[in-house]
Amino acid sequence: MKATELEQETEEQPRKRGFRLSLKWEWTLSTALGVLVIFAVIIILIFNSFMTVLMRQERTHVADSLNVVVERLSSQKKALSSGQVDELLRPRTVLADEPSGKGKAAMPYNNAVLSTLSRDSQTVTVYDTQGQILYATDKTVVPFKTSSHQHIGVKTINKVKHLVGRMPIRSKQGNRLLGYVQVTDNLKDYRATQVKLYQVALVLGLIAGLAAAVLSYILASFLLRPVEAIRETIHAVREDPQTDRRVPEIRHTDELSDLGTLFNDMLDTTQGYMDQQQQFVEDVSHELRTPVAIIQGHMEMLDRWGKDDPEVLDESIKASLQETKRMKSLVQEMLDLQRAEQIEVNYTNEVTNVSEVVQQVYDNFKMIHPDFTFILDDDVHRPVQVQIYRNHLEQILIILLDNAVKYTQAQARKEIHLTFESDMRNVEVAVQDFGEGISQQNMDRVFNRFYRVDKARSRTKGGNGLGLAIAKRLIEAYHGRITIESAVGHGSVFRISLPILPDATAKILNAKKEQAQAIANGSVPTGIKSALLEDDTNHSEEPKS
Fold it and tell me: What is the pLDDT of residues 325-338, one digit of tens each?
């Protein structure tokens, strides 16, 4: 039941993913949407400001109309009548003087009166003191209300906004109330302008959104090229883990270029680990094939007939034990070589006094090989600190001295020189023998795994061809170098060089090591552990050699 449910879930996963937008389109749409939102906010602010200005202008027009009409009618001394208002406001060239019957020149209209009475959007209505209509330029749709002063406001009629202005008409002499004037503006021009602005804003918004989408798509296509290259590289690596394909070099320097560089470094590191694993398996299977075949042959021979012959039985047991010891040695050396690949992870804070290690190895070999003459040339005469695990430095020196002993056994001059010297930056240890020597052709390959200059004699000397490979890997892991000088029949000189640590850096690394050991041993109280760890982070940016 569980297996069936799991299969159904795995089948539904691709369906759930379904349609998805690429990062390029997400960037494009989000940018276009952002531009539209910003554009809309700006347009709304501009639109409101512009409409406010238009409304202010409409109010000004209404106020001007009120003032013009009042100015025209305020010259009368008596209460206004319909005929009187009509004569004063309706356009004519001559006004009749009804009481005398004589004509007189009419008061000429000025431009303000003409423009006020000719506006299509405005309705001018004049009332007497009782609120009766004396004059109107159009049908009045707004009920009359008295007003003691000029008042202009917005009123909604039939769901349509109107601008209504009211003002009393007083005579210039005696300030006597003559009537009222009301100006109604239906805001037709205002609304027409508003509609046009809406249309312009909509068109500009669509153009801005489209332009933003196109530009952002082009920009996204340009900026996301490294991401596309990384994606294609990931697909290529997934299809073929052994591929050499990498993210192309990115010209511009930014976070994406750093990401591409880090991704390539990660692929190189992973590829290195895969190659190491494959190399390890191939080397072990290749080197173990011979001893296993030898042991198997002896066992089969004993099983068939050799177990009844004491001499054959003794020879087979000795040969099998010898091959077993060789396999054990081989496996140990292979493990040493594999551990040497992990030095950068496990031994970053190790500090070693080179003088002590050189003196110790020198004394040990003098005791182990009394038939050899070992000479130590120490030109330093002071403690020298390097960033290397002590056991690894000792292992390197043992490998070099052991090779020197092996290939000097058959020589008359059994003498080995161990030289120790340094300058301001590096310390150098050299091992010189006067043995068989190595040809120029073989010098380029002596550090390869399982390589032996003379395979036949190397078997008798007990070597597996891994010693120098281990020494080279260890030295390089600690940012040092190993070189060789040799001549056939005259011996060889192996030199190792390691960078010297400044005293301040050496003290910091030693303190870290002591803290880590104290915490691991549980000898530091809990309250102090956090302080030590905090102090450790404060020194995380120490100088590097």
Answer: 877 877 776 677 66
Task: Provide mean pLDDT across the span 307-329.
Answer: 80
Rounded Cα distance, 243 and 237, in Å: 6
Tokens 């004491």 belong to which residue?
Answer: 310
Does position 1 have pLDDT exceeding 70, yes or no? Answer: no
Between 117 and 202, name the one with better pLDDT. 202
**Phi and psi torsions of 166, nearest 5°:** -125, 150
Q: Which residue has the higher pLDDT, 344 or 432?
A: 432
Collect contacts of 22-25 with beta carbons under 8 A, ≥24 apart.
Answer: 23/220, 23/224, 23/227, 24/217, 24/220, 24/221, 24/224, 25/217
Run of H or E residues at 127 = strand 122-127
Q: How far apart are CA 166 and CA 502, in angstroms?
A: 95
Pairing label, strands 133-136, 122-127: antiparallel
What CA–CA distance (Å, rounded) separates 288 from 326? 9
- The span from the CA of 470 to the CA of 476, in Å, is 10
How far is the C-alpha of 268 from the C-alpha of 463, rounded, in Å? 32
pTM recorded for the entire structure: 0.46
pLDDT of residue 288: 73
Could you give the CA distance from residue 319 to residue 63 in angstroms, rounded to a whole number? 124
Instruction: Measure the CA–CA gap between 223 and 251, rounded to whole angstroms.
Output: 12
Specify the CATH number of the domain 342-501: 3.30.565.10
Q: Which of 250-264, 286-300, 467-481 has the highest mean pLDDT?
A: 467-481
Residue 80 has pLDDT above 90, yes or no: no
With contact defined as beta carbons under 8 Å apart, do 36 and 208 qualify? yes
Q: Which residues contact 351 (CB under 8 A, 6 or more apart)?
A: 385, 386, 387, 388, 501, 506, 509, 510, 513
Q: How far apart are CA 50 and CA 344, in angstroms?
A: 69
Q: Is 241 exposed, middle or buried (0-12, 13-18, 19+ CB in 10 A)?
A: exposed
CA distance 210 to 218: 12
Taking the C-alpha atoms of residue 532 and residue 217, their distance in angstroms, rounded to an integer, is: 52
Query: What are the domain boundaries of the chain?
Result: 24-196, 255-337, 342-501
Closest C-alpha to 372, from 436, 407, 415, 410: 415
End-to-end CA distance of the chain: give it in Å, rounded: 61
Write down the pLDDT at residue 464.
Answer: 60
Dihedral sign computed on CA atoms, order 156, 158, 163, 166: negative
Give CA separation, 25 vs 21, 28, 212, 260, 482, in Å. Answer: 6, 5, 12, 22, 54
**Residues 534, 220: Cα–Cα separation, whole Å:** 43
> Can you spell out the DSSP letters for 258-304?
HHHHHHHHHHHHHHHHHHHHHHHHHHHHHHHHHHHHHHHHHHHHHHH
Q: Note whether 137 and 117 are within 8 A (CB).
A: yes
The domain made up of 255-337 has a fold known as: Helix Hairpins (1.10.287)
- The 10s digit of each residue's pLDDT in 455-497 is 444 444 555 667 788 888 888 888 899 999 988 888 899 999 9
Which amino acid does the sequence have at 82?
S
What would the mean pLDDT of 180-191 be, rounded to a whole number?
Answer: 88
> What CATH number has the domain spanning 24-196?
3.30.450
